[in-house]
Design a protein that fits this description.
This protein is α/β, with parallel strands linked by helices. It has three helices and seven strands. It has a seven-stranded mixed β-sheet with strand order 1-4-5-6-7-2-3. A hairpin with a 5-residue loop joins strand 2 and strand 3.
Length: about 140
C-alpha cells in the first residue's frame, strides 16, 4: 500500500520511516497484548485517545488503566493489522496519520469483521514521534 505524504518535514524520509515504525509498534503491542509497550508510544503530556467504540480517554494514566484492563486477553480470537496510508506534516514536529486497520484471525487472514480507520496526531519531541491524540473509528458497512 502506498503512503501519501503531504506537508513539510525536517527529514522527510527519516520522519516517514519513523512514523511507519511507530504504527508497526502499535500493531506489535496490540497483537501481543503488551500494555506497557503500547503505552510507551503515547506522549506523557496529556494524550487523548478515543476508542473504536467512542470512549474518550484523557491523560496518560487514564489511557494506561483502560488499556491494562482491556488489552490482556483481547486478542484470543483475532487481532488486526495496521498500515499507515497518509501522513500530513502539519508542522515539522506535528503529523496527522491515517491508518488502515484490518481485523485478522490468529493465522493473519482477514476475518471480514468491520475494518478500522485509526487517526493519530503525532508530536515529535527530542527527536521521537509519540501519539499525542488518537481516534479509532470502525468503518460502517451500511450505505454504499
Amino acid at each position: 500500500m502506498t503512503i501519501e505524504v503531504f506537508g513539510d518535514a525536517d527529514d522527510p524520509q527519516g520522519d516517514v520511516e519513523a512514523i511507519i515504525a511507530l504504527v508497526a509498534a502499535v500493531q506489535e503491542a496490540q497483537q501481543n497484548e503488551r500494555v506497557e509497550d503500547f503505552l510507551s508510544l503515547f506522549s506523557k503530556e496529556d494524550p487523548v485517545w478515543t476508542t473504536g467504540h467512542g470512549k474518550r480517554l484523557s491523560g496518560w494514566d487514564t489511557i494506561h488503566d483502560f488499556t491494562a484492563q482491556v488489552l490482556p486477553g483481547a486478542m484470543k480470537h483475532g487481532t488486526a493489522t495496521y498500515t499507515p496510508v497518509r501522513v500530513l506534516f502539519i508542522r515539522p514536529d506535528v503529523a496527522a496519520v491515517n491508518v488502515h486497520q484490518v481485523p485478522v484471525d490468529r493465522d493473519g487472514e482477514p476475518t471480514g469483521d468491520p475494518e478500522g480507520r485509526p487517526f493519530y496526531i503525532l508530536a515529535k519531541t527530542a527527536g521521537l514521534w509519540k501519539i499525542a491524540a488518537a481516534q479509532n473509528t470502525q468503518v460502517y458497512q451500511g450505505l454504499g
